[in-house]
Amino acid sequence: MGGGVMAAVKEFTLPDLGEGLTEAEIVQWLVEVGEVVAVDQPVVEVETAKAVVEVPCPYGGVVTARFGEQGDTLAVGRPLVTVAVGADPAADAGSGGGSGDGGSGSGGGSGSGGEGGGDEPEGSGNVLVGYGTQAAVARRRGRVRAVSAAVGHVTAAGGGPVRGDLAHPDGGPVAVISPLVRRLAREKGLDLRSLAGSGPDGLILRSDVDRALGAVGADPAADPAAAAVGGGTAGAAARSAARPPVDGEVRVPLRGIRGAVAEKLARSRREIPDATCWVDADATGLLAARAAMNAAAGDGGTRISVLALMARVVTAALARHPELNATVDTARGEIVRLPAVHLGFAAQTDRGLVVPVVRDAQARTTAELSAEMGRLTEAARTGALTPAELTGGTFTLNNYGVFGVDGSTPILNHPEAGMLGVGRIAAKPWVHQGELAVRQVVQLSFTFDHRVCDGGTAGGFLRFVADCVEDPAVLLASV
User: Fold this and answer.
1) What is the pLDDT at residue 118?
2) Residue 89, preceding bond cis, omega within 30 degrees?
3) 3-state class of 165 per DSSP?
4) pTM across the whole model
5) For this structure, is 153 an active site residue?
6) Averaged over 34-62, what is the pLDDT?
C-alpha cells in the first residue's frame, strides 16, 4: 500500500455550465486514472445542448477515478472525477488496480471543501461558466477522507470498471444513462433493474420505461411531472412505445445538440402562432455593391460576405420596425421589446444545426459584422463555440440558400419573434427597367410571431428588406 503519505480525496462533480443547462454528454476524456493533473487542467470534453466545451478541474493531484465513459450523459452535480490531493503519484502508479473508469455513488471519497482540513488546497477558483472553487467550497461542504497515496481504483465485483452514471448502490449496474429516464422511473416507483433495455448494449430507454408502466396499468402522460420529462413529446413517445419494434429499424438517441434543437423547435411550434410572407427580389445591385466594397477594401481589408450585407439590412429594418425585435412574456402577458439586436444566424455543422449570435449587431459596421460572423462560423465548424455565443439571440437570419433551395417556411427560434430567410441567388428572367433581362434573383421569406404584430408590419419589414436588396442605396437613409 505504499508509504505513509496521506492524501485528501476530492470529488469534482459536473459543474453548472450556465444558461440553464442540466446535463452534458462525455465526448472524450483528457486524463487517465493515475495521471497527475494540475489545478485548472482540462480533464474532460463534454457536449451540452449548446456547445462542446472542455471542463477544467479545480484540484491538483492524482486522478483516482473517472465517472462515465464516452457517450454517457451526466447530470449537473453528478460525480465527474476524484482527485487525491497531496498523493504520491509513484506510489499510486504502483498500487495496481482496475482499468480506472468508474466508481459508484460517492466514489472514493467526496467533498470539495472540507471541515477536516483547514490547510488543504482549495483550488484556483478559476473554472468554467457558472462555478468556481471558492463557491464550490461554500456550496458543497462535503467530507474529506484521508487515504494512503496508494489509492485503489474502483472496480466492479468482476474486476471490470463500473461507470459512475450506471452504478446502482443496491444491485449492481443499471444500463441507463439518461437522468430523465431515472427520474421518471423513480417518480413511478419502477425498479429499473427489472427492465430489459431495447437500446444499444441493453441500454434502457424512455420507451422501455413507458412500456413497463403501461404493462402495470400506469399512464405516464397523466402525470404532469412525467409529461414534463418527455419534453413535450409524450404523445410521440406513447405512439412509439405502442408499436412493436420492426426488424432492421435503427434508433438514434435524441440527445445533445440534436435533442436540444428538437425540443426548442417543438416548443416553438406549440407556443408561437407564427405566419410567413415572402417576396422575390432582384439581388443584382446587392452583389454589385458587395463587389465594389471588397475592391475598395483591397487585399488587406475585411472581405464582405453576402450574409453580412443581409445582416446590415436586417438591423436597418429592425430599426424601422422595432416591434419585431421582441419576445412575449407569457407569464405576465406582455410583449417585451428589446433595446439591442443580438442577431443569430443558422450554421450547419457536423454536430447539427447551431445558431451563433452576433451581440449588438446594430452597433457594428458591415465589415465588423462580416468579421464576427466569419469567426463564429469557423468556431461552429470546429465545435469551439461557447454557450454564451449560442444563446441570447433576439432575431435570426437563416441563409438556407447555401443548400441550393429557393424558399422555406422556417420554425421560429423560440422565444424570438422573427426570422428572415434568404434563398439561393440564381440567374432568372426578370423585368428590369421595362425590359426582360437575366438578373440575379433571390427569394426572401419572413416568419414572425403574430402576437407581436399584424400582417401590415410584417409586410412592411419584408418590403424594406427587399428594397435594400434591389437598391442598396436605400440603406444610406438608415445608416
Assistant:
1) 40
2) no
3) coil
4) 0.58
5) no
6) 86
